[in-house]
Amino acid sequence: MRAINQLVLPLNLEYKIPQDDPVILLNEICDELDYANLKKQYVRHWRKHSPKTLFKVLVYAYMRKIYSGREIEAACKRDICFMWLLNGEPVPDNSTISRFQNEKLSEAIEDLFYQLIEKLYKRGEINFENLFVDGTKIEANANRYTFVWQKAVKKNAEKLKVKIECFIKYLSDEYMLESFTIDECYYILKARANAVDLMFVYGKGKRKTQLQRDIEQLEEYLLRKQKYEEYFSIFEGRNSFSKTDRDATFMRMKEDHMLNGQLKPGYNVQIGVEGEYIVGLSLFPNPTDVNTLIPFLERLKSKARATFRNIIADAGYESEENYVYLKENQQTSYIKPQNYEKSKKRAYKKDKFRVEHLEYNKEKNIYVCPNGCELKYIYTSKTKSCNGYEIEKDVYRNESCSGCHYRNQCHKSKNDYRTIKVSHRFLEERQNSLNNISTEQGILLRMNRSIQVEGAFGVLKEDYGFRRFLTRGKQKTETQFFLLSFSFNVQKYFNKMRNERLKTTLFEKEI
């Protein structure tokens, strides 16, 4: 008989793992985590796969840029590092991996992520001192052409309301009904149809009675009314959503394959970075960054149980509300003013008619234009932001601009006087932030913001190839990004340890 060649794997696979692979570090870190919240998601105590093992496999797959459940299953069968992580457990199939990530892990991933942040803090990698904040838009796993716009829904709902009112008036005349709602009219007509044993007919060659036509018209109006009410409940302050992922909002992306500024469904991903590690993240449906800073910092404070001393962000986060919030929480603002780049230009500096350049007399509470004309205080206007913050702006106006040879340069208003609105608190906080970023420390922090937080997004998008979510719904997509950030932090810790850069949180400016 011919001898049968058998493939025999060594019992100890660890010595076969390449030295430059971070899988051993990942295993060490994951073994130190507390999985109590994850185990609560399981009803049965007996199971084929340990939740801790599945978590290790999933994180390592993300470190290897493998996001598909089927590809992870194939890697567990062929890759020696995945086999070592399984530690004798059976290979999980695609459905097990997907169910674990989308159902079980979604309730525990945030806790596991911040346990990692706590360990990095204890090892001196994070100091909870300088938080670099930035955001990017990542496309959702949704059809690009299944959009619902709030303006269109509102317009169609108004048209439907008029049609319903006219139809109810017709029904009251036709069937001698009193003033009823559309729901009541529908039930009354259905009751009449049942009373006369009306047989509803359908199809070609069948003649419908007027009562059947009216009942079907009411059903159509009721369905449309219900659909519009459902849409309004989904919007929740947004201007649009996708039918295939209702948590996603249509935004302009940098990746524009049609080169026409096409809006695509996506999420505004906000992250905070310190020491090159992602220390916090949140997903938002609004495309602008200015309204995301406060909820992002509040969530980070509650989960990380620490407050960062310095907040460094770009001009997209500047607002009076954000400035006041940071001041009340005793955090130093290093937010670049929106007019920072423009203010360095010669034309801006020479424009003496700008509000910022007008002479202000604090005692008299008046502004003086370059021609010597006084703009006196009139009243204070109050507006509220979408978060409920009240902004007060003082309104100033002069008596007349007639005969002034600076009239066309001063303002373009059709009125014969100039009106300006000024928030003194905002100008004061903007100046404080400008002074902060202009110091030597501020320049160093601004440089590190560009390197660290924008560099983190660059690694995730380019090196990891993560440009589109693979799951649908905010909870599932956030779980996926927490996994990606967890794997990013482990890989970053491994790289810093290999390059002997541990406990370095800032890049120094080259001389």
Can you walk me through this structure?
The protein has 511 residues and is an alpha+beta fold. 45% of the residues lie in helices and 15% in strands. It contains 18 helices and 13 strands. It has helices spanning 23-31, 36-39, 51-63, 69-78, 80-86, 94-104, 109-122, 150-174, 182-195, 210-235, 293-304, 320-328, 340-343, 346-350, 407-410, 424-438, 440-463, 474-498, and strands at 130-139, 147-149, 240-242, 249-252, 263-274, 277-284, 310-313, 332-335, 359-361, 366-368, 374-384, 390-397, 419-422. Strands 1, 4, 5, 6, 7 and 8 form a 6-stranded mixed β-sheet that branches. Helix 8 runs antiparallel to helix 10. It is flat, with a radius of gyration of 31 Å. It starts with 22 loop residues before the first helix and ends in a 13-residue tail after the last helix. The mean pLDDT is 91.
Please give a quick description of this structure.
With about 500 residues, the chain is an alpha+beta fold. The protein has helices at about 25-30, 35-40, 50-65, 70-80, 80-85, 95-105, 110-120, 150-175, 180-195, 210-235, 295-305, 320-330, 340-345, 345-350, 405-410, 425-440, 440-465, 475-500, and strands at about 130-140, 145-150, 240, 250, 265-275, 275-285, 310-315, 330-335, 360, 365-370, 375-385, 390-395, 420.
